[in-house]
Specification:
alpha/beta; Rossmann fold; 37% helix; carbohydrate derivative binding; Glutamine Phosphoribosylpyrophosphate, subunit 1, domain 1; Glutamine--fructose-6-phosphate aminotransferase [isomerizing]; binds 6-O-phosphono-alpha-D-glucopyranose
Length: 611
């Protein structure tokens, strides 16, 4: 989704801004642009398509010498994907340039008022309105940050913005409402960005800007004020990230690298937290609220996309083994229905990025109801991690590919840890706890044994790559995995795929089955094995091709299914951690064989910061 980078320092800004945009590419975008304040005027360049196209255009135009500038990757919401709609946007007076993430809800009213005052608009975006509004206010208020503050007072919606003005050439003003913004404080330089990746190269001293805050940077320092004009004093904190991780290495795509690191993601999520001897989990981030967690009446899990499916696995685990009633919700639904909270209910948000707008809005809804809020989050310092009362970090490292993979298994592993944490404090026996803990500690090695057979899955995927429809079936713990398998395939290969609970096949999907409609059936030897086998038989009776994901040693299933990919035997509740690996590989190999942009699928964004 949209990305912001802004630089003020002593170096040439253009290459730094372009590099910053490249670091943000993984979020998904469709056009990009930069504006640099020069000695005589402003260097503005925008381009549709990749940052490389913009870089080319910038290089062809020759040197941009300025050392203050703003840049943006756009993911179209208001107005088509055109150069004119790409940011930075300029007010008609020519002095003010602005980049924006988010959506301005009342832009139409503001725009028509400004038009009646003579402002001329060049784009179809909501963003351009803010630039003109600031310009308009500046007729009476000359100081840029004050004009920005007053303008934001009139604006309704979500934003992260960065603004520069030709007549105050040594200044950047940035502000945030519901769209992330981080200030990197280097030596004699500042870099502002919508996530930490462009900042990491410069400094690990960062300041998280909060909703309703405006930060102004000049060569002499930074200053934070609220939109209500209150002065805020905040020192930088140290950002804990390794730059080296954001590198594809020898892999053709980040996604394959990230699938390959799924075993490590489980190791990193469980390291130091799994206590096999006592069959328990040590979760430092939630110990403070342990008493409330032990007394929980109902756990409301809320998330979006793949994180929601990790929550769905968690629902099965926590209800079966910790005896805690769980209610699972999509962020986009939770925020608009009227959720009922009872005494001792707890809200749990799961989010890799910690910035997903719907998850965040749901979290805020829960906070308003005075419910204890917890988070399972990967990005350290992200908004969800800062706004929840307590939580568990995933420690999966940056996930670059838009489609989530290693973050998913890491979230599922944390669901298992939470099950132990809650279960053992609520009557789960030592023997059961020990069995789960021991088996969970063996999962990464099992995953590695699957990944060593990547080529086998590549060959299977090649046999299925030409089909245009897929059904993914699974039951109980593997129902969410059927949904995840289908989601991953459609996200990155654009092939229509539906995930279904196996038992529901007879209530609809079976009507579609024929020799051109393959099914991927997750059928490990668990408590619902026989039922899945019946489903395979029903599909075969209608000549539907079947790829089964089955337990090692299950020879019978090979007589039924056209193809079988085996996974090691583990506890039923932990099979999702194994069955999902071949499904991620399956989607990856099909998409890669079609030559698609696997890491940046069309129309998708890594972190969906708008509603
Ligand atoms: C986007 C991504 C998905 C991700 C979802 C939730 O749709 O493309 O891969 O699962 O957002 O993201 P979160 O950061 O909240 O886990």
């Amino acid at each position: 989704m949209c990305g912001i980078v802004a630089y003020l320092g002593k170096e040439r800004a253009a290459p730094i801004l372009i590099d910053g945009l490249k670091a943000l590419e993984y979020r998904g975008y469709d056009s990009a642009g930069i504006a640099v304040l020069e000695k005589d005027g402003v260097f503005l360049e925008r381009a549709v398509g990749k940052v490389a196209v913009l870089e080319d255009k910038v290089a062809k135009r020759g040197e941009s010498e300025g050392s203050v500038g703003i840049a943006h990757t756009r993911w179209a919401t208001h107005g088509g994907v055109t150069e004119r709609n790409a940011h930075p946007h300029r007010a008609c007076g020519g002095a003010i340039y602005l980049v924006h993430n988010g959506i301005i809800e009342n832009y139409k009213e503001i725009k028509s008022e400004l038009k009646s005052k003579g402002h001329e608009f060049l784009s179809e975006t909501d963003t351009e309105t803010i630039a003109h509004l600031i310009e308009d206010i500046r007729k009476d208020v000359s100081v840029l940050e004050e004009a920005v503050r007053l303008a934001l007072g009139k604006v309704r919606g979500t934003y992260g913005i960065a603004v520069v003005s030709e007549d105050e050439p040594e200044k950047i003003v940035a502000a945030r409402n519901f769209s992330p913004l981080i200030l990197g404080v280097g030596k004699n330089e500042f870099i502002i960005a919508s996530d930490a990746t462009p900042i990491m190269k410069f400094t690990n001293n960062v300041i998280y800007i909060n909703d309703g805050e405006i930060v102004t940077v000049t060569p002499s320092g930074y200053r934070i004020r609220t939109i209500g004009n209150e002065e805020i004093s905040r020192d930088p904190e140290v950002l804990d990230l390794e730059i080296g991780i954001v590198d594809k290495g020898n892999y053709p795509h980040f996604l394959l690298k990230e699938i390959d690191s799924e075993p490590d993601a489980v190791r990193d999520a469980t390291r130091g937290r799994l206590e096999i001897g006592s069959g328990n989990a040590k979760l430092g981030g939630i110990e403070r609220v342990e008493d409330e967690i032990v007394q929980v009446n109902r756990l409301h899990i809320c998330a979006c996309g793949t994180a929601y499916l990790a929550g769905a696995v968690g629902e099965y685990m926590i209800e079966e083994y910790a005896g805690v009633p769980v209610e699972l919700d999509l962020g986009s639904e939770f925020r608009y229905r009227k959720p009922i909270f009872e005494e001792n209910d707890i809200f749990l948000a799961i989010s890799q990025s910690g910035e997903t707008a719907d998850t965040l809005a749901s979290l805020r809804e829960a906070k308003e109801k005075n419910v204890l809020t917890l988070g399972v989050v990967n990005v350290v310092g992200s908004t969800v991690s800062r706004e929840t009362d307590a939580g568990v970090y995933q420690h999966a490292g940056p996930e670059i590919s838009v489609a989530s993979s290693k973050a998913f298994v890491s979230q599922v592993a944390i669901m298992a840890l939470l099950t132990l944490f809650m279960g053992r404090r609520r009557g789960m026996s030592l023997v059961t706890g020990e069995r789960i803990a021991k088996e969970l500690s063996a999962v990464p090695a099992f995953m590695e044994s699957i990944l060593r057979r990547k080529e086998e899955m590549k060959k299977i995927a090649a046999r299925y790559a030409s089909y245009t429809n897929f059904l993914f079936l699974g039951r109980k713990y593997n129902y969410p995995i059927a949904l995840e398998g289908a989601l991953k395939l459609k996200e990155i290969s654009y092939i229509h795929a539906e995930g279904y609970a196996s038992g529901e096949m007879k209530h609809g999907p079976i009507a579609m089955i024929d020799e051109n409609f393959p099914s991927v059936v997750i059928a490990p030897q668990d408590s619902v094995y026989e039922k899945n086998i019946s489903n395979i038989q029903e599909i075969k009776a209608r000549r539907g091709p079947v790829l089964a994901i089955a337990t090692e040693g299950d020879k019978d299933i090979a007589k039924l299914a056209d193809d079988v990919f085996y996974i090691p035997k583990t506890l039923e509740m932990l099979t999702p951690l194994l069955s999902v690996v071949p499904l991620h590989l399956f989607a990856y190999y099909i998409a890669a064989s079609k030559g698609l942009d696997v890491d940046k699928p069309r129309n998708l964004a890594k972190s969906v910061t708008v509603e």
